[in-house]
Amino acid sequence: MPVMKRSEDGSLLIPADLLGPLGLAPGDRVAVEADAEGRLVLTRSAAREPSVEVSLRQAIARKNLETPMQFIKGVGPKMAEILARKGIVTVEDALYLLPNRYEDRRQVVPMNRLRPGETCVFAGEVVSADVVTTKGGRRFFEVMARDASGVMSFKWFNYHAAFMRKAWQPGRRGIFTGQVTQYGLQREVHHPDVDWLAEGETVEAAMARDPVGFGRLVPVYPLTEGLNQKALRKVMKEVVDRFAPCVESALPARVIRERALLPLAEALGAVHFPAADADPRALEEGRDPAHRTLVFDEFFFLELGLALKRRGVTLEPGIAFSVNHTYTKPLLKLLPFALTEAQRRVLAEIKADMMAPHPMHRLVQGDVGCGKTLVALLAALVAVENGYQVAIMAPTEILAEQHYLNIHRWCEQLGVTVALLTSSLKGKAKAGALERVARGEVQIVIGTHAVIQDKVEFHRLGLGIVDEQHRFGVLQRGLLRKKGENPDILVMTATPIPRTLAMTVFGDLSLSVIDELPPGRTPVETKICTDSRRRQVYGIIRDEVAAGHQAYVIYPLVEESEKSELKAATQMAEHLANDVFPDLRLGVLHGRMKPEEKEAVMRSFKGREIDILVSTTVIEVGIDVPNATVMVIEHAERFGLSQLHQLRGRVGRGSATSRCILMASDRLSDDGVKRLRVMESTTDGFRIAEADLEIRGPGDFLGTRQAGIPDFRVANILRDGRILEEARAEAFDLAERDPELRAPGHEPLREELARRWGGRLELAGVA
Ligand code: ADP
Ligand code: MG
Q1: What range(s) does the Helicase C-terminal domain occupy (predicted)?
Q2: Measured between alpha carbons, how far is 252 from 485 in angstroms, rounded to an integer?
């Protein structure tokens, strides 16, 4: 009989060979009890198989959280409707409606100590109240109030005089709350809240009557037009007191401990109704432990889903390519330039992936013009050297054709066969091309989505490259994968995505960044112009064309008003052609044109048969016409900054200095101008993307919803980047150690993960 020992912490060590006979596995928890006859009975405890009581308790808690808001005391039909319009239907929704700021109502402040900018509580007696008319004829209602320390003026600019006079009678005492402002020497409070004191009542007694509104840091909720903060606050207090305890953390106890998190219930309580000694600034900036907990929790489940998705791919067997330089070395010799440091680094990352015996799943991100195509070609050649085929997918025919021309040019000299496969390829030519692909005679296939159509069969697909990723869904990536046996996948995007966002949107891909442009580029000079300077702008276009260059004029197309916008664009083109540049050659490009028509226009622009191309935004990302040196963007304020950056990338591709002119309305708001100024001040795509993200929020930034990423309830990816990294590390580590989430203490994770991701985890699966 093997001997059992005690470990240092006092627990019993059961020898491994006894585990089987006892029906146990490593990590199991057991309870030992004596039965009626004094025999020891060994039972596996709840950690592995949650007991009926535990699951029942969880189910009840979950059910409670689904309680509709209209069942809460103080929520009438009207309030329920307003809340529902903001997406707050259940008490759980309400628990995650976080205050966006707090008012410090912990103490009553003497009037002479009220500081401008602060929102305070003070108490006193009304001295006078009446309408005041200024010298300029403006009217407002003014109340003077005083306490033992001094006086304060209250003002209202919209008021009902009779009603105000009745409420604010001299001698009446109240508790006031409001933000103090200062005009010159005068401090005043505009439209303060008031709680009147009853005859003879003390301030302390009155405050005790409303423990939600006084004597604490009081939450102020966002998104509550039509709702009264005071009433909402009372409702929220009820919700938090009754239902926050139902929220249970699904995070493993170890993670909560090691990351110094709070239990979720406690964190929710603290965020809505902070403790008396909490730091209001830390709360407002989301730096306190309660926010940290909520944000971590939210990020953790996002990252856990992504980690499991990625694991699903990386564990599969894949092709282990070897790097034998048959084609890559000769190509590097042919090039008239050396690779940039960043290109070299990213290429090394790609090669390491390709050599590993698992499928590569990598995103290469790099600003327009950084040389992604070349990196992709080098990766393609590695696959070709190993006897595999490569598919390169571009989102449009024009782009596919451009890639074909670029790549074919080099491959011809290397003796590598390249074919272009687009939907305009018809009949015999198409059948022939498909045939050659299927027989493996074509080594690199370049095309649009036509590449992944059913009819296309590869002989031996080893690498799929997807250009300009965000136009493709995850689905297409999956289809491409199915064209071979676990081929490597390389995704390229020209949209500089801030790192934190990339981690969420493309979290299942490894990330490489080409953060350097080839030398010798002159940055595009960017200027904001208003309509009043339109003639000068036309002068610039004329000068550039006279110098042998070409120009773009870009019009926004906003979907809902597409028709009228389109009219504006075509009218503008006519006006430019007839009245402004009758002597120059103009072309028009817009989304309503047939693909062949668009192709034809693009081709003549590339072939310098057109001087000025008037286009809607269909002008393609990635289009390369180095001779175009000026771009005028009309209604620039209607574009996202990242989109402007993409558009601007169409110029500045040659050696000549290029210009981008952002036409903005004369009536553009200060904020609007400030936003556009970002474009003047930098050409760094990452900085622009960050500014854009800050302004527009992640939902709009890339259409993250389409990417299958759950919305954030509390997290803010700009503010909470650090927590995201921590949560990601923890989630990836956990997915590594327990990919099926079956270890003791991990059961709640599975359920919670399924709940948060809904059906999306599978749907967004990479294949
Ligand atoms: P993008 O990343 O926008 O796809 P491209 O691959 O189209 O950029 O490259 C833009 C231009 O820069 C091309 O004409 C390409 O030949 C050139 N290029 C690429 N790499 C280098 C380099 N290391 N040095 C100089 N020019 C380069
Ligand atoms: Mg490109």
Answers
A1: 533-699
A2: 37
